[in-house]
Write a structure and sequence with these properties.
The chain is an alpha/beta fold. It has 10 helices and 10 strands.
């Protein structure tokens, strides 16, 4: 995220009226297209990732009309200070939207240390987010299996249930994605996130609607977002550092979907 955008979002935190002003321009009636995924109600099916790496500006980002905000990616091995700072912010400023933590191997660890890294981040954030997006750290489908087993087992220790979604690499082969999906069905995973309309639609067909698919668009083109949702994805994630640009795409797409109903 650019330093200029960070400064703007940071400045807005000290101007309570700014959120009301942003919502006035962005939160129209068609933004309220409620949907339920993983048993969680969302105001609408469109979220944003990439604009809140530190888990600090989720409320300011949500003002642009998103149904959820993804924070991170976080890695315990890059230091626990960023994780603790994000958690402290969530405790201090209660999220006004659904939020998810992206867990990733951002420190480029060796494979023997990666599992512990994911488990540490997962346990620290568990009580403070609505669900998790767990990034595969390689294109090898076996690379995520032990980590997921560990996270699913750890989840049994908590009173509340937080969904776990695997985020596939952008350039994963179809046959490797199929292996991840097959393992997900028996491991207790709650969803798969995949890039692009074609891949997400293919996985929707493969799972026959029994496993939520989250489609990721790395472009703020509303047409691509529309293809992802029309292809059967349960949720759409715009991956952009610009909440304003993604908010415009979300506004256009939700308005078109509202007019079709």
């Amino acid at each position: 995220m650019s330093k200029i955008r960070q400064k703007i979002l940071g400045f807005r935190k000290f101007l309570p009226w700014s959120s009301a002003l942003i919502r006035l321009f962005h939160l129209h009636s068609y933004h309220k297209q409620e949907t339920e995924v993983f048993g969680i109600p969302f105001q609408n099916p469109i979220g944003l990732a990439g604009a809140d790496p530190g888990g600090i500006y989720y409320n300011q980002i949500a003002d642009y009309g998103f149904g959820f905000v993804l924070t991170g990616p976080f890695s315990a091995r890059s230091g626990k200070a960023p994780l603790k700072a994000s958690i402290a912010e969530i405790v201090k400023n209660k999220p006004g939207t659904r939020i998810a933590a992206i867990l990733s191997n951002t420190a480029h660890l060796d494979e023997d240390s990666i599992e512990k890294d994911y488990v540490t981040s997962f346990s620290m954030f568990y009580d403070f987010v609505d669900f998790f997006l767990v990034e595969m750290f390689s294109k090898n489908p076996d690379s995520i299996e032990e980590i997921i087993d560990e996270l699913v087992a750890l989840r049994l220790c908590y009173d509340s249930y937080k969904p776990i979604v695997i985020k596939l690499p952008k350039d994963i082969l179809d046959e490797d994605a199929d292996i991840v999906v097959a393992n997900a069905r028996i491991s207790g995973i709650d969803g798969i996130a995949a890039y692009g309309a074609d891949q997400s639609a293919r996985l929707v067909g493969l799972t026959e609607g029994r496993l939520p698919i989250l489609g990721i668009s790395d472009s703020t083109d509303p047409a691509e977002g529309g293809r992802i949702l029309d292809g059967g994805a349960s949720l759409l994630i715009y991956e952009s550092v610009s909440p304003r640009a993604a908010g415009k795409a979300s506004k256009y797409l939700l308005k078109k979907r509202s007019e079709r109903k």
